[in-house]
Amino acid sequence: MPNSPAIDDYLKTVYAHTEWQDAPITPSVLAAKLGIAPSSVTEMVKKLGAQGLVAHEPYRAVRLTPEGERRALEMVRRHRLIETWLVEEYGYAWDEVHEEAEVLEHTISDRLLEKIDARLGRPRFDPHGDPIPDAAGVVERVRFVLLAEAPAGHEGRVLRVSDRDPGLLRLIEGAGIAVGQDVRVAPAGLEIAGTPVALPAGAAEVIWLSA
Amino acid sequence: MPNSPAIDDYLKTVYAHTEWQDAPITPSVLAAKLGIAPSSVTEMVKKLGAQGLVAHEPYRAVRLTPEGERRALEMVRRHRLIETWLVEEYGYAWDEVHEEAEVLEHTISDRLLEKIDARLGRPRFDPHGDPIPDAAGVVERVRFVLLAEAPAGHEGRVLRVSDRDPGLLRLIEGAGIAVGQDVRVAPAGLEIAGTPVALPAGAAEVIWLSA
DNA sequence: CGGCTCTTTTCGGGTCACCTAAATATCTGC
DNA sequence: GCAGATATTTAGGTGACCCGAAAAGAGCCG
């Protein structure tokens, strides 16, 4: 059973959904994230099930099998390594890499990917703070809290900013927030080194802090 | 009329055929080069004709329209720049780049391609000696002879070695022949700096010399 | 627990790029 | 200039992946 770009995208999306929260993904959410009709998801999920890549009972959420997860991690690795590479070597800003990586992850050969990985010094996190699985599919796990759910007064480091919305990413960057920064959760925003910082609308839903 | 990888491959292949010889390509040759059935070519050529990319009357050869050539040159540029980049930056050998470039040429964005071009210093020839069209589609043209058709005693520089057959490329490299070298055509092979060099079978059909 | 809503699936279709087999046009040698 | 060989086109499919409309299941509220 050979893979295809479409299949890889499904697996990656299912995986990504559970990476920073625990509920498994439902078909409608999967459809929304992939930008396709729910009926198409039903069909494809059936195929993935037949290939042993996902477990799925009708009208229930979709989960990856171990083999499905293995392949998903492979794609996540590709995506994040490529994003890192575009930022480090080609002067892309962290909010500009997602789309290009979305395409290249399907077409760069294993060989080139390995050279890229080596050249970057086998990075363990991408520019958004997401961990990059190693070639064996092992991922670093860190304890985290979503900013929207962190109590006021919580102190931590900005671990990750979701790369789903480039516009929001730019606003967040404009507000002076960067991955790796030490921050403190204020009643209505963040404090960086004691200085309060106003957050763009929706930002608390895409910023993760260390626990 | 959006492009597709398939369409781009047709245009590029039609263009490539007339680049180093003059007869326009026939459907069967096109099918052979693309590795698909002749009937598929008929169908696709009809579509390309409807889009104004090729001129074709039934049972005749296929020619590019100006617009078709423009797009073909765009693809040729992509292919050759990517090949050059893989050799210069990622340590690929000149016989290893073709396949990777074949895929990446369809998926690298204009923006990344431009950065690659700039980083390489806007090269005008690729590792096989093929000229790289500039962003406006202008190509360097050089007077050339196919080795198989050069008279014994002819002296010239190795301009180009076709990249179609990686195995043959390796044999040619193994024989000590490289792009840019000054050579002399001997009755049964080549002379490099007076030393006769034996040629692998078929090599004379893929090596071009300056006229 | 019955009805209403929202989610998911089923069903019939569509496009793209490919295929094989069969028909037809062109070319070549005599 | 005609027969046979060869090239090309037509006709009828196929597999991926997607769609919208309609049917069916699941969840919830009174």
Q: Can you tell me about this structure?
A:
The structure is a homodimer of 211-residue chains. Chain A is built from 7 helices and 8 strands; from the N terminus they run αααββαααββαββββ. Chain A has a 6-stranded antiparallel sheet with strand order 3-8-4-5-6-7, with no helix packed on it. A two-stranded antiparallel sheet of chain A has the order 1-2. In chain A, helix 2 (27-34) crosses helix 3 and helix 4 crosses helix 5. Chain A is α+β, with helices and mostly antiparallel strands and 211 residues long. In chain A, strand 5 (182-186) and strand 6 (189-192) form a beta hairpin. The relative contact order of chain A is 0.11. The A-B interface holds A 86, 90-91, 99-100, 103-104, 106-109, 111-112, 115 and B 86, 90-91, 99-100, 103-104, 106-109, 111-112, 115-116. The structure holds a DNA duplex (30 and 30 nucleotides).
Oligomer: homodimer
Strand order of the largest sheet of chain A: 3-8-4-5-6-7
Shape summary of chain A: globular
Alpha plus pi helix count of chain A: 7
Major sheet of chain A: size, sense and barrel closure?
A: 6 strands, antiparallel
